[in-house]
Every structure is written in structure tokens, then in C-alpha cells.
Design a protein that fits this description.
Shape: flat
Radius of gyration: 18 Å
Number of helices: 7
Structural class: mainly alpha
Length: about 190
Amino acid sequence: MAASVENGGERWLRVLRIIGWGGAGLLLLAPLVAMQFTDEVDWTASDFVFAGLLLGGLGLALELAVRRGRDWSHRIAAAIPPGLAFLTLWINGAVGVIGDENEPANGLFLAVLAVALAGALVARFRPAGMAWAMTAAAVAQAAVPLAAWGLGLAPTHLIGSPEVPAFTVVFTGLWLLSAGLFRKAAG
């Protein structure tokens, strides 16, 4: 019985892997196709390289999360941070969260990723330590709009726009979800 469950699990992971890498390839092709039909999409070679590195990094991180995860809570907990890093970099590179992509306050989101990565390295990627690292990332995420305002990096009307609190709440919640799942994985 265990062998059939294991084989079914392996098959399911293989299907997810094909969907994931295929989806990444299609996502990378989408702007190329769009550029054939509209002038509003204007990617340069460096844009494609940046997107390819982001998608490739995300894919590799997800592969590691699935392979090294002890159980599904551990795997999901480990998959959330690379997904958040990808979205943070993609959104800030494309349109920005606070104002546009050139607004200096958006650089503070890199500090959130640095907190998560530093915490993960200190925790040596062990679930109990990762729970603390992801909690620290959540606190850093929640602090970004306050830091941007306090440091005078962005005008108040940009920080108070509806996108900033929504982004902050959703991403803070996802960091906390990862922390909770790591706590569960730690036992």
C-alpha cells in the first residue's frame, strides 16, 4: 500500500513539475507574443534575461522545497518565501508598489527579502528557525510603509493609496502563513 501511495505522490509531483516549468516558459513567452500585436509591451533583451532569472530562480527554489520538505506543511511553508520574493521583485520591477517602479521607497521591499534570507541562513533552513525567520519577514513587510513615510522616501498620498495597504496585508499574511506552517512542520 505504501509503495502505491508513494508512486502516486511521485506521479503527482512530476505533473506539478511539468505544469510549473511549462507555465514559466509560457509566462516568459507572453510578452514576446504581445510585442507582435501592440506597442504597449516593449521588452528589451535585459527584461527577458531578468524575467528568465526570476522564473528560473523561483523554479529551482520550488524544486528544492518539494524535494527537501519532510511533509506537505513543510513543503508549502518552504514554497511561500520564494514565491513572495518572486512577486515582490516582479511587481516592483514592473510597476512598483509605492508609486511607480522608480519610487525610492520600493527599495525597502528588498530589505524584507534580505531579512527573510538572512533569517533562513541563520536558521540553516530548519523548520523551527524558519518559523522565526518568516515571522521577522512579516514584521519587516508590515513596517515598510511606516519606514517609507518616516524616512520621507515617498509622499504620503502614495503610501496611503489603496494598493499599498492591500499589498502589505496580503504579503504580511503570507509570510505569517509560512511561519505557521514551518511551526507545524517543526512539531
